[in-house]
Structure formats: C-alpha cells, structure tokens
Amino acid sequence: MSSLSTSPNDLSLTERVRVSWPILRRWVVREHKTRYRQSILNVLWAVVTPLGLLAIYGVILTHSANVTGEGVPYLTFAWTGLVIWQAFASGLNTAAPSLVSSADVLSKIWFPREVIPMAATSAAGVDLAFGLTTLVVLALVQGVRPTMAVFTVVIPLLILVTWSLALGIVMAVVNAFVRDVGHGIRLALQIGFFATPVVYGVGFLEGIPLLVEINPLAAAIEGVRDSLLRGAVPDRPWYLAHLAAGCLALVAALWYARAVEHRIADVI
C-alpha cells in the first residue's frame, strides 16, 4: 500500500488506471455487500422494485392510455425499460453521496477519488445483470425468439455504462462541495422517468421528439429492445452518437475528478 500513501500529482493515465483497478474491484464487492447487508431478499430487490413499478404504471397505462408493446408483448417490453431504468437510478442515487460517506477513508489515504463513485455505480451492474437474466427468461416465455441481433445489445449497454459512470462521478464530486445535489438527483429522476420511454415506446412521446433524441437512457432502452425483442441491429446514428457522447462525458468526468481531488478531503 506504500504506493497509495501520498498523492502523486504527476501520475500518467496508465499509472492512474493501474493504481485504480485493484481498488475498484475490491470496492465494488464491498459496495454490493453493504447495499444488501441484513437484507432478506438481497439481489431479488433488483426484480421486486421494477415489478412494483410495472404493477402500478403498467396497469394504468394499458387501461387508460392504450399503451402497447409496439409489436412485442407489453409485459416484456415494459420490463426491459424498468430493469434498465432501475439500474441507472440505483447507481446514480448510490454514487452521489459516496464520497461524503467515505470521508473517513479519504482523509487517511490517497487513491484516485473517482474509484468510489465508479464502484457505487458498478455495484448496480450486478442488479442489472440479474434483471437482464429475468428479461431473457420472460421474453422466451412470452414467445419472443432471439436472433443474431442479440449480440449487438452491447452497443446500448455501453451507452448505459458510460453515461452512468460519467454522471455518477460528476454528481459525487459536486455533492462533496454542494450537498443539495442528492435532492436534485431525486427530483431529476422522478421527472426523467416520465420523460424517458420506460413503460411506453418512443411513439408515445412523438409530440416532443427532441426530448427522446437527446436522452441517452432512451437510446439505451430502445437499443436493448431492438436487439433482444425486435431482432433489429441498433446501427442507427442515434445510438452511435450517444455512445460517442457517453465516452467523451466519461473522459471529461475523470478529468474533472482529477482536477479537484486535492480539495475533496478538505470539504467532506
């Protein structure tokens, strides 16, 4: 641990990754265990939470707004959006306060600060993997048969991962200086749920197309639906643009965390 005893200001990107990687792996395991400590359902909460939302919003929308699955069984269609949205929201809600809640560690030893929010976000990936497994089973039960396009699901999932990590890092760092961030995130997620085609398709929001086009979560959800449910390859420029923007956002978030990390321990 001697390499982590001080804060080297001149670490190259390669050295920073080398230092961060083993810490990140251990911290993800720690974060996941902490999240479900003394929990009876444990990782099953990754299914229970979206199931509750589906029971409420799904029933209301199908009966009052005539929402359909746009060619695929509605239950599978809505479940896709809920699983992805819940993983994103859970990761962001956990990442935002992660630096503040780890103040005791940050004040004692140096390591790249972005590791902590990245671990918090990555821990939600375990829930996502479990949720996607239930999605595949549900799709098969409802008669949806996979095609070769299923392998292209990596594109929308990478959109989800890059944007989740980027936003998690930025929100965690900003929250260290301004504690209102947590309240803002909860409000933004409540609004974002209805501004994203989670339990309905993009056609339901056709009156406000710009809201869909600029929403990376919309691209991630629709991309997974295309790959897994519709048998379509998500090769539209829309997906590639959001993937490129997500990569740039992640690089910018890492740069920002590195630029202000020397101030974080002083304010938390």
Could you name the key traits of this structure?
11 helices, about 270 residues, disordered N terminus
Structure overview:
There is one protein chain. Helix content is 71%, strand content 0%. It is an all-alpha fold and 268 residues long. The protein has one domain (2-267). Helix 3 (74-95) runs antiparallel to helix 6 (115-141), helix 3 packs parallel to helix 7 and helix 3 (74-95) runs antiparallel to helix 8. Residues 1-8 have low confidence and may be disordered.
Mean pLDDT across all amino acids: 83
Profile the largest sheet.
none
Which strand-content bin applies to the residues?
under 5%
Q: Which regions are unreliable across 5 or more consecutive residues at pLDDT < 50?
A: 1-8
Number of strands: 0
Choose one word for the global shape. elongated
**Helix/strand order, N-terminal first:** HHHHHHHHHHH
Number of domains in the coordinates?
A: 1
Gyration radius, to the nearest Å? 19 Å
**Which class best fits the helix and strand makeup?**
mainly alpha
Instruction: Compute the separation of the termini in Å.
Output: 23 Å
Q: Give the proportion of residues in helices.
A: over 70%
Provide a count of the helices. 11
